[in-house]
Specification:
single chain, alpha+beta, Herpes Virus-1
């Protein structure tokens, strides 16, 4: 079919002067855009007229789309678009041709197909091409000169480099700050070490001054004792001389041959002896050692208090810094060092007086146990005393297990004066006072207390004085979500968290020490409590809700 040409004014709407959109024909034969004629007749529903010829209609005509004209308009629009693209491409090629002379000397590589310079950049496909490729395969695309596109891209590259270098500068600055921060940390660490060392040295100096004061006190006690001994010595010497004189008189009387003369002198000698009293002279020198004993006990008690205070405060310091494991390691090492120091101190004089063979035997026997097998050497048998149990507690399995008894099932309780009436506590029958004792208990539940107490502990009081660890008659390990130890209502929270249900208690009665452990493959040290025990210690237990304690039978494990 041959191409035909329709004048553009015939395809334009007389109302909007644009190409017809949705062309509609009215009865007079003229064509308008559907939206335009509807808008024109919107207000007049009768006596509508044609906007082009002015013909009037007695009523509003029914508007019908002209489909043929619509197809013509679609083909016309596509033709116009294609022509605009071809025109744009032709203009681009014309521009390229005008700059052909410049591009021939630009040094760009040649197109392998047309042997023409690659001086055209297709912005649509992002390809570098020649002019012939642009006219043949890139019709309707947007083109640019390679040189101009390089300039624009160079500007973008410069911005990217600037931004990247700014980022690099910021990161390098942060890296440099980190290096400086590390140096500051080291400086601060050294300063902290110096400050801590200064504080500790100051405390040591103060303790040294206190020690010198104690030495002066002991020196004054020595002088006072020496003066009293000197006075007693002089008095005793005078007494001895007097007794010697009396003895000489008695000897002289004994040698008298005349009976009459003997009897005449006897009355005088008898009255003299009765007057001077021949009983033994008591100087009371034993009391001179009391000040030394009191001083030694006071200093030992101060030492224990200082150790406990330091353990508590340094544990708080390490806990605040998040170093609980370090605290536990320090406690373990400290326990070993104290045990070794205590062993060497308590046996140093004795070893110096024994033969070499006995020294080795004593040292081997006095070494602190470390493995469970070594602890089991000192295992002792225990049983619960029902007469001391609170009425809410029930004891079973041969007096080895205690648990809270359900209230709805309670039976009448036999009155017993030894029973705990205010606290859910119970004592064992056996009092421990051997040099070394060891026992283990199995714990079920979240809240229990494992204690050692004197037999005279308060069992009736409403106050906390009847609780384990709240008085001077008991020492307690409290186990809940954490561990803590208590004595005289003073509590120390431990850094170790409960990880096993078996607890071992190691008592050194004469030394005055109680060690608590978690029983694992290797014994996990928890804490050491020190005191001067004056009477047998009875193991005791307190139970919280839904808790149970069983005394382990260690007889079969003894070595």
């Amino acid at each position: 079919m041959a191409d035909f040409h329709i004048p553009m004014n015939h395809l334009s709407c007389r109302i909007c002067s644009e190409l017809l959109r949705n062309p509609t024909t009215i009865p007079c034969g003229h064509n308008f855009c559907l939206e335009c004629i509807q808008s024109c007749w919107k207000e007049d529903k009768v006596n509508c007229s044609c906007p082009e010829c002015g013909k009037k209609f007695p009523y509003r005509p029914l508007l019908i789309k002209n489909t043929t004209l619509a197809w013509v308009m679609k083909d016309t629009e596509e033709t116009l678009k294609r022509k605009r693209k071809e025109q744009h491409s032709a203009q681009s090629l014309e521009v390229l041709k005008r700059h052909r002379s410049d591009t021939e000397t630009s040094g760009n590589p040649l197109c392998p197909r047309h042997s023409c310079p690659l001086d055209v950049y297709c912005c649509t496909d992002s390809h570098v091409i020649c002019a012939l490729c642009a006219s043949a395969k890139h019709v309707g695309h947007r083109f640019g000169l390679v040189k101009e596109e390089r300039r624009r891209k160079q500007e973008e590259l410069g911005k990217m480099q600037t931004k990247l270098r700014q980022t690099l500068e910021e990161q390098e600055k942060k890296l440099d700050n980190m290096g400086k921060m590390f140096e500051q940390i080291q400086v601060e660490a050294r300063k902290t070490e110096d400050d801590c060392e200064s504080t500790i040295v100051r405390v040591i100096d103060y303790l040294q001054k206190c020690y010198m004061s104690v030495k002066q006190l002991i020196g004054a006690q020595v002088e006072a004792a020496a003066a009293q001994v000197h006075i007693s010595k002089q008095t005793l010497e005078m007494k001895v001389e007097k007794i010697k004189a009396q003895d000489a008189q008695l000897e002289c009387l004994a040698q008298t041959e005349s009976d009459a003369h003997f009897l005449q002198k006897w009355c005088h000698v008898e009255r003299l002896c009765e007057k001077n009293d021949l009983q033994r002279f008591h100087e009371g020198l034993e009391d001179l050692f009391i000040p030394f004993e009191d001083t030694k006990k006071a200093v030992e008690q101060l030492g224990r208090q200082l150790e406990e205070f330091c353990d508590k405060e340094f544990a708080s310091i390490f806990s605040a810094a998040g170093l609980e494991e370090h605290v536990e390691s320090i406690n373990n090492n400290d326990m070993e060092q104290r045990c070794e120091a205590s062993t060497s101190k308590s046996h140093g004089l004795h070893l110096s007086l024994c033969p070499p063979e006995d020294n080795r035997t004593v040292k081997e026997n006095k070494l602190e146990p470390k493995t469970r097998e070594e602890f089991l050497q000192y295992a002792c048998g225990l049983s619960l005393d029902p007469a001391t149990a609170h009425e809410d507690l029930t004891i079973s399995e041969g007096n080895k297990e205690v648990m809270l008894f359900p209230r709805r099932c309670k039976t009448p309780v036999i009155h017993c004066p030894q029973r705990f009436t205010r606290r859910k506590q119970v004592l064992c029958r056996e009092g421990l006072q051997a040099e070394q004792c060891y026992y283990e208990v199995e714990v079920k539940g979240n809240k229990v207390e494992i204690a050692l107490a004197y037999k005279g502990i308060d069992r009736k009081s409403f106050s906390k004085l009847s609780a384990f660890g709240a008085n001077s008659n008991s020492w307690s390990l409290d186990r809940s979500e954490t561990y803590s130890v208590s004595h005289k209502a003073h509590s120390i929270k431990l850094s170790a968290l409960p990880s096993h249900h078996r607890i071992g208690v190691y008592l050194k009665f004469k030394e005055g020490a109680v060690y608590f452990y978690e029983v694992l493959d290797d014994m996990k040290f928890l804490y050491k409590m020190e005191a001067k025990f004056t009477e047998p210690l009875y193991p005791g237990f307190w139970l919280g809700d839904k808790s149970c304690i069983r005394i382990c039978d260690l007889k079969q494990h003894r070595l």
